[in-house]
Structures are given as C-alpha cells and as structure tokens.
Amino acid sequence: MNQLFRRKMYKENEHSSGLLRVLGVWDIVFFGIAAIIGAGSFSSLGEAVFRGGPGVIVLYIICGFACGFTALCYAEFASRIPTAGSAYTYAYASFGEIIAWIIGWALIMEYSFGNIYVAFSWSDYFTSFMGRIGIHIPDFLSTSYPEAKKAFFGGSENKSLVNAWTSAPLIGNFKLILDVPALVINGLITWLCYVGVKESKNFNNIFVILKLFIILLVIAVGIGYLNTDNWFPTSTLTGEQSFMPNGFTGVMSAVSGVFFAYIGFDALSVLSEETKDPQKNLPRGMIISLVLCTVIYIILTLVLTGMVDYRKFEGVGDPLAFIFEKSNANVAWMEFTVSLAAIVAITTVLLVFQMGQPRIWYAMSRDGLMPKKFMTIHPKHKTPSYATIVTGIVVGVPILFTDKSFILDFTSIGTIFAFVLVCGGVLLLPAKEKLKGRFHLPYINSKFIFPILFLGSLALFYWFQPDFFHNLMDWHHPTEGEFRISMFFFILINLGLCVLTLIKNLSLIPLMGLSSCLYLLTGMSHNNWFWFLVWFAIGMVIYFSYGYKHSKLNNDLNGDLN
C-alpha cells in the first residue's frame, strides 16, 4: 500500500533518453498556438455560441483565467522536472504512483480521444473545401457510422448525414460508412511524428504563421460587418434584450466546447526533453502562447456574435466560414479562404497532440508502468517510434465507431481533471532555491486573500442571482438540477479550501487554478462523469494487473528491503 503513494524523486539529467534538444522558446510558442487554436475555434465555437449566445465570451474569459493559473503551475513543474511526461511526471513527484497512473491514463484520453475529434473536424472542412472546388466525396465516405445512423433514425435535418445512411453500399447486412479523410490525415500525421521532431517543428512553424494570418484576416474583414444589436438579442427566458439570452446556465452548458478550445497548452510540457534550456524556455513558451490565444479568442467571439445572430449557429460545424456565406455577410472569397485555412489550422493541432501522446507512454514505460516496448527510440529519427505507431492505431480505430459530440465531452472532463491534480500538486511541492534564469512561481500568501475573494464572489453572485441560491437544493429541476448539484459541491469544497488556507498559508496562484478548474467541472453532465468513471475503472484494471507488478519504483523498494 505504501508504494501506491510513494513519490518519485526526479533529478536533472537523470535520464539519457537520446531525444534531441532542438526546440527554442519561440518554437514552443508556435507549438502552443498550433495546439490551442484549431478545432476549438474552427469547429466547436459554433456550438458554444449557439448554447451561450454572445455571453459565451464570459466563459472564454473564465477558461482563460483557469488555464492561465494552470499554465503557471505547469510552468513551475516544468522548471523543476524537465523530463518527458507532462502532468503524469508531475503527479508522480507530488502525489505518488497511483495518482500518477490516474493522470497518465487521463492524458491518454485527452490526447488520443481529443485527436479523434480533431480528425473528424479536419475531415468536415476538407470535404467542404473539396466540394467548393468541384470534387465531391461521397457522404458515406466522409462521416462516421454512428453519426449517420443517429441522424437517420433520429429524424435529423442534416441531409448529408441522412444521405450517408441511405446511399451507403451494403456488405452483407452491414452498411459501409467510414470517414476516409479522417483516417488518411491520421496516418499522414503519424508518419510525420515518426520521422522526427525537427521535421515536425519546421512543418508546424510554417503552418502556424499561415493560420495566424488567416485568423487576423477574418477579424479585420468581419469588423466591417458588425451589427452591435446582435450582442444583445431578445432573451428566450425573459423576453428582454440580454447579453446572455439563455441565462448563465446556457453559458455554462457550452463549457465542453469552450474548454476544448484551450486544450493544447499542457501538451507542450511533454517536449521537455526536446527543448533547449527547458527550465527557462518551456515556461515562457507556454505562458506566451496562452496569453496570445486568449486575446484572439475574445476578439474572434465578439466578431462572430456581432456579425450573425447566435441562433443561426445551431449545428454549424464550420462557424468561421459560415459567417461569410451568402445568407450572412456574403463574402465568397473569404468563405473559400477560411475553409482552406481551417484545414491548415486543424492539421497543426493534430501534429501537436500526436506528438504528445507517445511521450506520455514513453515516460510511463520508463517507470515500468507500461511495457518496455513503448521506450523504443528510433535509431535514426530519435523519436519514440513504437509508441508513435500505437498512437496512430489508437486514434485511427475509434474513428470507425465514434461520433464528435461524445468525443468532445469525454475529452474535456479528463483534461480538466488532470488540471485539478496539477494545481493541487504544486500546493504540495516544497519551497525551492531561486536560481537565475529559471522560472519561479511567485508565492502569494492566500491566508486571507482567497477566503475574501471566494466569499466576496459568492456574495456578489447572490446579489445578482438570489433565486439561484434559493433553489440551490432543488436537484430535481429538469434543466438546472445537475448544475445545482455540481455548484453545491463546488461551494462546499471551496469552503474547505478557505479553512485549509487559513491553517496552511497556501500559495494563491495554484489555489486559484484549482478553484477555477473545479468550477469548470460544474458544467459537466452525469453522462460525462459516467463514461469518465468507466475509463477510470479500465485504467485501474490495467494498473493492478501490470503496472503495479512491473513498477520500477516498486522493484527499487523491494530491492532496498531485501
């Protein structure tokens, strides 16, 4: 039992992995922008705007702050532990082996399943773009089987999905429906990650420059078509003009789509062993990329909701191209340009995520928690070759039998959970000597600041929304019941944190990151939690059947005892 919570001590230059240190601070920034700005802005933004209305910008700001605090915690860990593995490695150093495994298992879900969603989004834009230039890809070869089946039997108005089901050829009693573009791009990205990080870096930097140019062009052109009345549509709840027409509950219902737009910055920490001077360059790159992307998201959301009524975004998978369609701004050349840019943007996201996952497996294998085969480094390319190939398979196979909505929610809850443990882990780290040229998380005593901030925010929320608190214990409400349950436990946990910080004088920044991420979890439904627990249970079976027995830490402990 002691092994489960025994922490691993990491030392600088402890591992000689053979990975090449070729990444500088701006390479990290570019990888960060590549990961963050992609499917979230080019695809899931449409659904988020539809659910939350113009007020969804508030959720982007909340997520920006939550990820900002979390990024500082990642930066602190990256400065102390410059090895591959991301939050998995950090959890091993702060919580112990069992929590490290849980985090590693959650990261596998984030990167692998996240890339499935990104591959689907890439396919949608690619198919749309090819259609605009006169090349039609059959519907049954550009969508997933579950989506087509759900659309047909659910009476969907999406003609493409329905046609995919009705026009698909039969192989026996089985309809041949598969997303070929998603499978192809997954294969190509896997190959690119296999041949080397240097080649991937050069490819990524070129694409990021192009992507940023297009996004800035969207903002510049879109400003000319703004209608400020769209920012205050008539509320469906009150009948009055409101920035949040569906209420704050409607805004929070978009948390999966909005948070997905921020997923990616944490993937940068897996590149520690391939970064030059990681204690300095990695934290700087993470923070710079997150700040830049947050500003872009805020401006982009304002442009979208100002150009087009939020209700028009229902079911729209290509929102940035949609705003320039004939029925909206009617700028044909921008519609074409954005469709092409989306393909580029989403390709870079695929690249970063596909680079991240093998390095998680590599780190877990190095600790004995996964088979040694995952430690294989290609003699020529100096990449975790076996883990890269397995990642391609793990992403590729589910493309055949999953759909976007399930993957989106599944990915978000696992990632937020990992962020919670990273922020909590920083609170457990001992003080360190300050060294010149390295990142140091500023210590701000939260003894009084955090209780004042939390209780003050609670009082302010009560001032504006007294009815919510009066009905907080009504958990049977058909639309707000789940959110009220989540908020009740969120308040309870934070009151406990207030007491704890009064006793322990906890550092404010990781505490704010922890509280912010816990708040984001309040937007998750019971369905999200169910599948997350199923995934968690599978991970526990694998750990106790293999990882526990082969753990390097366990073997070292047994050796010491003998």
What this model shows, in words?
The protein has 562 residues and is mainly α. Among the domains are: 23-134 and 180-423, Amino acid/polyamine transporter I; 145-178, no CATH class. It is built from 22 helices and two strands. It has helices at residues 25-36, 39-52, 56-80, 87-94, 97-132, 145-153, 159-167, 180-195, 197-223, 247-252, 255-260, 278-307, 319-322, 332-366, 385-396, 404-428, 449-464, 466-470, 481-504, 508-521, 526-550, 552-561, and strands at 170-171, 174-175. The longest helix has 36 residues, at 97-132. The protein starts with 24 loop residues before the first helix and ends with a helix.
Quick recap:
It contains 22 helices and two strands. The protein is globular.
CATH topology of the domain at 23-134 and 180-423: Amino acid/polyamine transporter I
The CATH superfamily of the domain at 23-134 and 180-423 is identified as: Amino acid/polyamine transporter I
Please name the CATH architecture of the domain at 23-134 and 180-423: Up-down Bundle
Output the number of helix runs.
22
CATH C-level class of the domain at 23-134 and 180-423 is Mainly Alpha
Strand content: under 5%
